[in-house]
Specification:
By secondary structure, the chain is of the alpha/beta class. It folds into 2 domains: 8-226, Rossmann fold; 249-370, 3-Layer(aba) Sandwich (Rossmann fold), CATH 3.40.50. The protein has 10 helices and 17 strands. The longest helix has 18 residues, at 353-370. It is globular.
């Protein structure tokens, strides 16, 4: 049967590209499998992972533990190390044969490189860096009620161009994070999206489901002639990374540190060190050049879910709140008692961060000493 991306009725099931490196699954994969399970349930179809590598069957079962019904495993020595040519060809060939209706990639370095190449090869659209996904219209409306200022109940939802109820609704930041745009791909399949790491909630692991997942080895053809690059050596940079997504404690600084930038960051670092956490920041601090971009939390930074999020001198613009509002406990320090950050804070302290910060640090040290 010939492949035609416009023959929408021929496509079925939700697929997730399962990224592994050196035989270890990337954490974003489990987030995508968990989100894919939700989408597959909304559509009443199966959730399938596609895993590429060399002898990677041993890590395929754990995908079932997070919701996958099937995992398509493609093994080849030519797939041991990631190459754009090799991975694009294999994924495109398997998609053309099995025709999923939705395909998700993590917005990692590999995902950002691979997804657009596959989309072009498969003649379909791609929405990049998504932070929310829906198929079910009522679920999407609920998302808008809590995350937008739109008059949801008085909007017209029917479209003469496509069926709103069955299309993947892909939401992403636009205009530098000042707006959120929802995009659909109504004329072609699969609907493809890259998803920002850290924004989707990982499901609890189900051991029984991991054992029950179906492992399938689809046929594919790949030769050295298909790959125009050669991986000579993989060198891991000895660089200190800021792991905001995996941190249980984050102490973030905002524009409030302006009167003493180094002092404000030093306070945040001291509190973070005492808690065993990391330092984050608002976009304003990054834009001002006071801290590097890998510390940024928000729509145009990283989305985080720590146990405790401490905001020092952050007013709480909607772009920043979108990146941290699901933290288990939010402590905000700001001298403006009307700052929007207090709307979502569990504990709010109205005061100068340069006075409150050291007191907070002393309290943490005292609590640890008495524990």
């Amino acid at each position: 049967m010939s492949y035609n991306s416009a023959d929408i009725a021929a496509f079925k099931n939700v697929w997730v590209f399962c990224e592994q490196r050196q035989g270890k699954m990337m954490p974003t994969t489990f987030e995508l499998i968990s989100e894919g399970r939700k989408l597959a349930d909304e559509l009443g179809v199966e959730l399938c992972g596609i895993l590429l590598g060399d002898d990677v069957d041993g890590i395929a079962n754990e995908l079932g533990g997070y919701g996958a019904d099937k995992v398509y495993v493609c093994n080849s020595p030519l797939l041991k190390n990631y190459t754009t040519d090799g991975y694009t060809k294999v994924i495109s060939d398997v998609v053309e044969e099995l025709k999923p209706e939705i395909m998700l990639f993590g917005a990692s370095n590999i995902g950002r490189d691979l997804a657009p190449r596959c989309a072009a090869r498969l003649h379909t659209g791609l929405c990049a860096d998504c932070t929310h996904l829906d198929v079910d219209l009522e679920g999407y409306k609920e998302f808008l009620r809590t995350g937008s200022s739109l008059d949801i109940d008085n909007m017209k939802w029917d479209s003469p161009l496509f069926d709103v109820n069955v299309n993947l609704k892909m939401t992403r930041p636009a205009f530098g994070g000042h707006l959120m745009a929802t995009i659909v791909c109504p004329r072609f399949r699969p609907a493809m999206a890259t998803v920002r790491p850290g924004v989707m909630q990982k499901r609890p692991f189900d051991e029984a489901a991991a054992k029950a997942v179906e492992i399938i080895h689809p046929e594919f053809s790949l030769t050295e002639a298909d790959i125009e690059t050669e991986v000579v050596e993989i060198v891991k940079a000895a660089k200190k990374m800021v792991d905001l997504i995996g941190a249980d404690f984050i102490v973030s600084v905002g524009r409030g540190i302006a009167k003493d930038v180094e002092g404000g960051i030093a306070i945040a670092e001291a509190i973070a060190e005492e808690l065993g956490g990391v330092v984050g920041s608002s976009r304003a601090v990054v834009d001002a050049g006071w801290i590097s971009a890998d510390h940024q939390v928000g729509q145009t930074g990283k989305t985080v879910h720590p146990k405790v999020y401490i905001a020092l001198g952050i007013s709480g613009a909607i772009q920043h709140k979108a990146g941290m509002q699901d933290s288990e406990c939010i402590i905000a320090v700001n001298k403006n008692d009307a700052a929007p950050i207090f709307e979502i804070a569990d504990y709010g302290i109205v005061g100068d961060l340069f006075k409150v910060g050291p007191l907070l640090l002393d309290s943490i040290k005292a609590a640890k000493a008495n524990a």
